[in-house]
Design a protein that fits this description.
Length: 121
């Protein structure tokens, strides 16, 4: 590092960090849409991510207002589209549901998050 100005090093770290951040898998869009209210209960939740996922280490679950898991426990990455994670649902009664996801992207970074949707009475 001798001779390399500290500012150049800082910039290199900054650029490397930015490139790394871009590679993480973040939620791109979801169906039902994030924060949406539905008239009819959805048969499944689909979440598209910004990067491909590692199927063995990526999952999502859906919980009700009491925190009880209500999905069918079959969350899986779509074999023909590694950016798509899906989980099936029984017929949900009206209420607010939270989708909780935790995924490992192909660049080996773990990201997690959640969002809600509502089924109208
Ligand atoms: Cu990453």
């Amino acid at each position: 590092m001798r001779g390399l100005p500290a500012s150049a090093l800082a910039l290199a770290v900054l650029l490397w960090g930015a490139a790394g951040a871009e590679a993480h898998a973040f939620l791109d869009r979801a169906d039902p849409r994030v924060g949406s209210t539905l008239r009819n209960p959805p048969a499944q939740v689909r979440i598209w991510f910004t990067e491909g996922l590692e199927p063995a280490f990526s999952s999502a679950r859906v919980v009700n207002e009491a925190g009880q898991q209500v999905d069918k426990g079959d969350s899986q990455v779509d074999p023909s589209n590694l950016t798509l994670l899906r989980v099936s649902l029984p017929t949900l009664p009206p209420g607010t549901y939270k989708v909780i996801w935790r995924v490992l992207s192909v660049d080996s970074h773990v990201t997690e998050g959640d969002f809600t949707f509502r089924v109208e009475p």
